[in-house]
Write a structure and sequence with these properties.
4 copies of one chain form a homotetramer.
Chain A: H1 13-30, H2 37-44, H3 48-54, H4 58-67, H5 84-100, H6 107-116, H7 119-130, H8 137-143, H9 157-174, H10 180-191
Chain A binds a DNA duplex (31 and 31 nucleotides) through helix 2 and helix 3.
Chain lengths: 196, 196, 196, 196
DNA sequence: ACATAAACGAGACGGTACGTCTTGTCTTGCG
DNA sequence: CGCAAGACAAGACGTACCGTCTCGTTTATGT
């Protein structure tokens, strides 16, 4: 004898998808602070009220899109060849390219801007990159425990990952290129100086 | 025998100061994205055109105020007692309080938001905290070279400082509190695990 | 079986009225070129966009108010006692007072200024005064056909009316008072010299 | 032993001419209400203060240019062939062309707009057209006294001229074309119906 | 099947802020 | 001391969005 609470139509999944899709497209195109709810509604073919009914702010839309993996996708997975220095180096090169690419330039900063007024975005941004899933940075570092000077048993894996990601954000904010030298230095910070 | 390039009135220093002052006050009060140029002009008793004549955007105003030390001031200097672990711990406690305080909450995120559309702000933010002046983090770490496991001769001081600051920004974005455990972990990332 | 062309909210008649009312009040108070759209919006308790949505310029607002009879009203009707000379004289005295009165001073010139960038205003201004409704000048002259030297069968009634109104506008522009002598002369121009 | 009343340079005639010239050019190009004092100063190569020092408003500049004959020039002189009907017809055709021409379109309305906030402009506008110099309308009508039905001895010449000019202004304001029919009607108003 | 009622698209509304333009005054240094 | 140049406080311009609110239409239940 389950009772339904009300009659009438349910939330339109098509509208939800269209909104998220329009949001991430326009985020990439115009950046977070030229992203307008009216623009999203118009591009998604949706009334503004449909957005306001389900989300509190535009940052909440971004947070949801981020959670669904619609933004960063799998572009930033850390490889695992067994050699953690090589893997980190490879990954940092990939990240560096995203930071500089025409589509990524601005995207990362846009996400930071979104995080600025929505803690969820910040958390999901951190989890998505440093987090503990498969392909995530923490996981990769954990697998290397014992093999590098800075990664003894009990090393603060999560904090190392966080510091690494933080350093990348800082570079994104100051538009410093992530060149070979910087990459080597970051690897050294994370796992220790190369053996002689 | 300097020659002046033109005649006519000269930039009003009083107006410049009033604008910067009004900007940082309102930044602290209302956050970066409720900071309005009209509001700054009105609070500074200045015409809008006087702002647009000299700055390209509100983030440029913040960048200039930051450069003049009107925002972070000397609140974030790293102490130097000779014991780098103790000094970092003390400093991180101070930073943690700024991040949580009613006046600092939002201020750091506001600066990040400003950095989001102005590379200068990002650079000055980094320099102001990680930079190499007296009382700056890099300087303090350099002084400790040789005394800690992660700080041998040739350690990538600047990158360590950057990673530390980045980690703090990331915590600011995700509103993670900077508790004793996190502080200890960050110290370990920077200078290595405590000796037995 | 009329079909509506779209769904959604409908134009607010209250806002429209408030805008027209505010516009004519401020026109009388401050004159056409100190009439600001922002001022109208503010006095009408309306957003600026609500004005721009429906009118192209401030002169279009004046044109509409004029069309609705909100400005000149019935102040300028030509009387009809059967004696066209007496009627014109009476009417010109009334017009002269409007031109000189504190509320009319400026109002007529303001309407001329509005006509300056909106043909509709010019047309409605002409129609409202010279036009062919009941109480209008043309009508009164037509009724007098055959009774005066300049008004034989086939006289160019409309052009006489237009010339008369034009002469009044020219006096308004040059701030020449409309004294008894001028009135008599204008009557003579319109209907001919008095009989001996 | 003439004494000068003060030291220092004297009003620059070159600047005065440049200002008047720039003003009438821009008046023709952009219309009275897009005519900006800054624009005049800039085009004339003059400081704004030099304008404000000598004129109270932009309409005063127009008034002065009008007085000097820099605007209407001799374009509107009434011919005198001895046949007043023909002369008026010719003149009205010329006026009609000015009203419709690309350079005159707007110019007349601009002058009306200027008259709107400067009685001098109105007066000079009337005098320049209806006035009593050689080639002026009143003069031409006076010469025809006795030869036409509406022009007996003692006819109100000045008022007829004024009514005619007023009718033209009204047509300029309402953008009514001055076609052959209208011209014939105006001639009839001024001098009476054509003889059978 | 029908009534109910929520979700929808559209978009008008009162507002705030934008970045630009112009006003009239003031300031500086040249001639 | 007149002038060209131009900074200044003030404030209106017309545009872009905000978040709320009405419309009229379109579904999905519950009766």
């Amino acid at each position: 004898m389950a009772v339904s609470s009300r009659s009438g139509p349910v939330r339109s999944e098509a509208a939800r998808q269209a909104i998220l899709q329009a949001a991430i497209e326009m985020l990439a195109e115009r950046g977070y602070d030229h992203l307008a709810i009216e623009g999203i509604a118009s591009r998604a073919g949706v009334g503004k009220q449909t957005i306001y009914r389900w989300w509190k702010s535009k940052s909440a839309i971004i947070a949801e899109a981020l959670l669904e993996g619609m933004i960063l996708g799998e572009r930033l997975e850390v490889p695992d060849t067994g050699d953690v220095r090589r893997d980190l180096t490879t990954w940092l090169h990939a990240v560096g390219e995203v930071l500089l690419s025409s589509q990524g330039e601005g995207l990362v900063r846009s996400l930071i801007a979104a995080a600025t007024d929505n803690a969820d975005v910040g958390q999901r941004l951190r989890d998505a990159i440093a987090g503990s899933g498969s392909g995530a940075l923490s996981t990769r570092l954990a697998a290397a425990i014992g093999s590098e000077p800075h990664l003894p048993e009990g090393a603060p894996i999560d904090d190392i990952a966080e510091a690494l990601v933080g350093a990348l954000l800082l570079r994104a904010l100051s538009r410093s290129p992530l060149d070979d030298h910087a990459i080597a230095a970051l690897v050294a910070v994370a796992v220790g100086p190369p053996r002689a």
